[in-house]
Structure formats: structure tokens, C-alpha cells
Amino acid sequence: MREAGRASAPLEETLVAEIQQAAQLHVDETPWPESGTLLWLWTLVSASAVLYQIDPRCAAMLENVLEDRFHGILVSDGTASIGPSPIACAAGHTLRHRRAGWPNRPTGASREPVRRSKP
Question: Are the C-beta atoms of residues 59 and 81 closer than 8 Å to each other?
Fold first, then answer.
């Protein structure tokens, strides 16, 4: 298992670099129970790369992957674990929220896609 991890390290670095340079990045997470601990399978999808990461459900995971190098549009379902970053709400979740009688958008979601400003 460790050998496979070492062998795939260059590929992971390439995928992370592509994710960081993306104009638009879709992010979602789903529960991933592992040895009695609840972790999350994160999926980061750009036009040219898909990165899967298993980590706790917190904004620090995104900060570790993006490293302040991502300046595009971040698209999410509005989950609090994404943190304070401006988000564009995913259409599927917005429709589900409307059908359930929730507000038009989750708290913190922008109406229009927002580009993260460069530092």
C-alpha cells in the first residue's frame, strides 16, 4: 500500500496543480466511515482534472489543497464545511431546497458566481 502511495505522488501533484489553476472548480463531499471514524470523501472537479481526497469535514482540507493558488469560481452545495469562501450554489441543491420550501439559496451562497480575489 505504501509503495502504491509513493508511486502515485507525482500524479497527485500534477492533479493538484491542475485543480489550483482551474477557472471553475466543483467541490462536494460525502460521508466515508473508516475504522469507526467518520471521514469525508471530497471530490474536486475541474474541466481537466478530478481529485479525490479522504479527510475530516472541514474547510482546512480545501485550504491545504488550494494553498491560496486557486483564483477561479468555486461551486459548492453551500455546505458549512467549505468555510467563508464565496460560493456559487449548485443547481440541483437549489431546486431541492426550493421544493422543500427553503430560501432560494443557502446562507452564504452568492446569487452570481464570484471570483476569488488574488492575494
Answer: yes
Q: How far apart are CA 17 and CA 15, in angstroms?
A: 5
Alpha carbon distances (Å) from 48 to 19, 24, 30: 8, 10, 22
Contact 32, 41 (CB under 8 A): yes
78: Cβ contacts below 8 Å, ≥ 6 apart:
87, 89, 90, 93, 105, 106, 107, 108, 109
Q: Over the stretch 33-82, which tens digit does the pLDDT of each residue have? A: 999 999 999 999 999 999 999 988 777 788 888 888 888 888 887 666 66
SS3 57: coil
Residue whose C-alpha is closest to residue 40's, from 52, 50, 25: 52
